[in-house]
Design goal:
It is built from eight helices and no strands. The chain is an all-alpha fold. The chain has three domains: 31 residues; 50 residues, no CATH class; 62 residues, no CATH class.
Length: 177
């Protein structure tokens, strides 16, 4: 049995899928943006585990016994944490031994929308400048006000296409990285 797809219906389905994708993207962006308001204290020089352990007046040997580790293992893990070379699972175990909770977050410097705008602008500007350079060589240079309009239009196009164009190197945008 053959299935016939009516072009307009197919287009509408893609639009609905695209809208669902946009809703999901908006939700992820809101979640990522909410992390920007997090107050992140600076990490103590000796690391959080040793600092908290000392704050509750617990010795390394006591923490080791509580976790079923050797004193040497706790000491090594504390040094690894201070040096930034410890796994999240190891940190979680040590935190539990200190009756604490591991909190893990990556805090963005800008909103997701600002990051997307900046990347789209960078790609568009580079493309317009390359086109303008080629036109200059042919004595057909674009005036700067029209260049800016072209950049703005291209930014909208890039944002509408989305992630693949924004973050992947692509022949379409001539390896903008």
């Amino acid at each position: 049995m053959k299935t016939h797809v009516i072009p307009n219906l197919k287009r509408r389905y893609r639009t609905e899928t695209f809208n669902v994708k946009n809703v999901a993207l908006d939700q992820r962006q809101a979640k990522a943006d909410s992390a920007m308001s997090a107050s992140v204290p600076s990490t103590p020089k000796e690391g959080w585990i040793r600092t908290l352990r000392k704050a509750i007046d617990m010795s390394g040997a006591q923490l080791a016994k509580h976790l079923g580790y050797s004193r040497n293992k706790v000491s090594i893990l504390e040094r690894r944490e201070a040096g930034g070379d410890i796994t999240l699972n190891q940190l979680r175990e040590l935190a539990e031994g200190l009756d604490a909770t591991l909190v893990y977050a990556i805090v963005p410097k800008n909103t997701a929308e600002d990051t997307i705008d900046k990347q789209a602008y960078r790609i568009a500007k580079q493309q317009v400048e390359m086109s303008n350079q080629n036109m200059f060589l042919e004595a057909q240079q674009i005036p700067s006000d029209k260049q800016e309009k072209a950049i703005k239009r291209m930014v909208r196009e890039i944002k509408n296409i989305g992630g693949k164009v924004l973050w992947d190197k692509s022949d379409r945008w001539n390896d903008c990285d």
